[in-house]
Design goal:
By secondary structure, the protein is mainly alpha-helical. The chain contains 3 helices and 2 strands; from the N terminus they run H-E-E-H-H. The mean pLDDT is about 75.
Length: about 100
């Protein structure tokens, strides 16, 4: 396609001149929406960690801009393969549990 650049004097003229060749696209895209998802592992390269807790969630690795920490975290992430069980954050004591005493 040959495009007549002299025909491109304003937005509408440009779209008309280039539209058949699909050489120009001024369509407006809505602002990006908040994304959500479920992930097993997160590699955070932001300067400030996303989680400020004493113990971050399992599978969360914050390395920031430090190349040494990025290397260490990426090597740790490479080792995390396979199936994982949901962690238990309690100690089960059958003697004080009503279900355990009743055999349930």
């Amino acid at each position: 396609y040959q495009i007549d650049l002299d025909a491109c004097r304003d937005h509408r003229a440009c779209v008309k001149a280039c539209g058949d060749a699909l050489a120009i696209d001024f369509s407006r895209v809505d602002a990006p929406q908040a994304l959500s998802g479920q992930f097993d592992l997160i590699f955070d390269l932001n300067d400030a960690p996303a989680f400020a807790q004493h113990q971050p969630p399992q599978g969360y690795f914050h390395a920031g801009a430090d190349a040494g920490r990025q290397l260490t975290a990426s090597l740790a992430l490479l080792q995390m393969v396979g199936e994982f069980e949901k962690p238990k954050f309690f100690q089960y004591k059958e003697s004080i549990c009503a279900h355990g005493r009743n055999g349930q």
